[in-house]
Amino acid sequence: MINFSTLPELSLYVHLPWCIRKCPYCDFNSHEKPDGIPESEYVDALMRDLEQFLPWVWGRPLVSIFIGGGTPSLFSSASIARLISEIRARVKCLPDLEITLEANPGSFEADRFRGFADAGVNRLSIGIQSFDNQQLKTLGRVHDREQAIAAAALAVEIFPRVNIDLMFGLPSQSMAMLKADLEQAINLGVGHISCYQLTMEPNTRFALQPPPGLPDEELLADMQTFVVNRLKQSGFDRYEVSAFCKPGQASQHNLNYWTFGDYLGIGAGAHGKISSAQRIVRTTRVRHPASYMESIGRTPINETEVSIEALPFEFMLNALRLVEGVSSHRWAQTTGIDVGAHPRLLDQIVAAQKAGLLSFTSGRFQATARGYELLNDLHSSFL
Predict the structure, then answer these.
(1) Nearest CA to 257 among 76, 63, 90, 121?
(2) For the chain, give me the number of helices (H) and strands (E)?
């Protein structure tokens, strides 16, 4: 039986679903923006959404807010300021609250960036993906190399914490092209780089029509190794499969998510996970922005309880992506069950250890080097 003595930390995810244009690789719930984004009406809907959740989380402080999309930087700084202010008026927030906003170089303006900082945003995450103009065109991005560099440079001036997203394994990308992208990223002076492989996600244009010239598995492996080694040489610690940071620059929001913390999810298509005294539930919201604004606050929260049998997979799915793994104390804190009290967990641990995929020593779950290479197999050990 689930029985919490102390509930996990609580974060808030806010989804702003509009983009200038849908990228062919993107499987997020994003929609091409209308002529005028209904910013005020959407923030109204977000607050109705948040208020529905308040009885579930009375007294629990937020440790982070993540405003994602879509392209949240399409919203005016005044709307972002109102959003953050109204969240603070409804939910207790820690004094050192991390507030991240996603931005794209094609939608940046200097005054808007400064307005976001004035509104309380203290971490900016910029979706650059590549500094190669031809690659940017192939990926359907609306910015070019010069805009990417200018946006990142300005962000570093304004925000104490800046992340940039990069991709590798791009169509016709050579190792030399990857090296050029990575050197440019390092030279920008950001404190966090998310570098991940392009994948053909279901229900995307690339899945239906894969671009020609994708690198083979051998080249992809070489690219991954190069990324890890080069960023390490430049002072970036790899703390998750695709996340690299300088000291003190790790994403607190993502760490809470990866270690099975709780998070409210508000906005069109947003997902959440919330623990109460004796149960854990997943929540989902209506995906289409217009339907969301029309229905939210007027219909019940869509919730699905996480079964005890599903907890090992739910917990390990992201926790084992962390380089340092996660402690058994964190398991007990976020599932409400001691390791030895779960009906199947110990058997699953032993099986993963025998396969050479998992280390469980000194009360810590951690993927072995082989397990890190075969994460899907390791995760399957806990189904």
Answers:
(1) 63
(2) 15, 17
Burial 237-255 (b: 16+ CB within 10 A, else e): ebbbbbbbbbeebbbbbbb
Pairing of strands 192-197, 243-245: antiparallel
Predicted confidence (pLDDT) at residue 108 exceeds the cutoff of 80: no
CB 279 within 8 A of CB 3: no
**Within a domain: residue 284?**
no
Q: Distance between CA 381 and CA 355 in Å, rounded?
A: 9
Distance between CA 255 and CA 383 in Å, rounded?
23
Q: Which two tokens stand for residue 163?
A: 């992340």
The answer as to whether 220 is a domain residue is yes
- Are 362 and 241 part of one and the same domain? no
Residue 17 is assigned to a structural domain of this protein:
yes
Domain count, the chain: 2
Residue 372 CA: distances (Å) to CA of 134, 234, 317, 318, 359: 32, 22, 12, 12, 11
Select from 227, 256, 285 the last residue of a domain: 256
Task: List the domain range (segments joined by +) for residue 232.
Answer: 10-256
- Note if the pTM is more than 0.85: yes
The enclosing domain of 355 has a CATH number of 1.10.10
- Residue 262 within any structural domain of the chain: no
Contact yes or no for 65/80 (Cβ under 8 A) = no
- Predicted confidence (pLDDT) per residue in 109-119, tens digit: 778 899 999 99
- Residue 107's pLDDT band, with cuts at 50, 70 and 90, is low
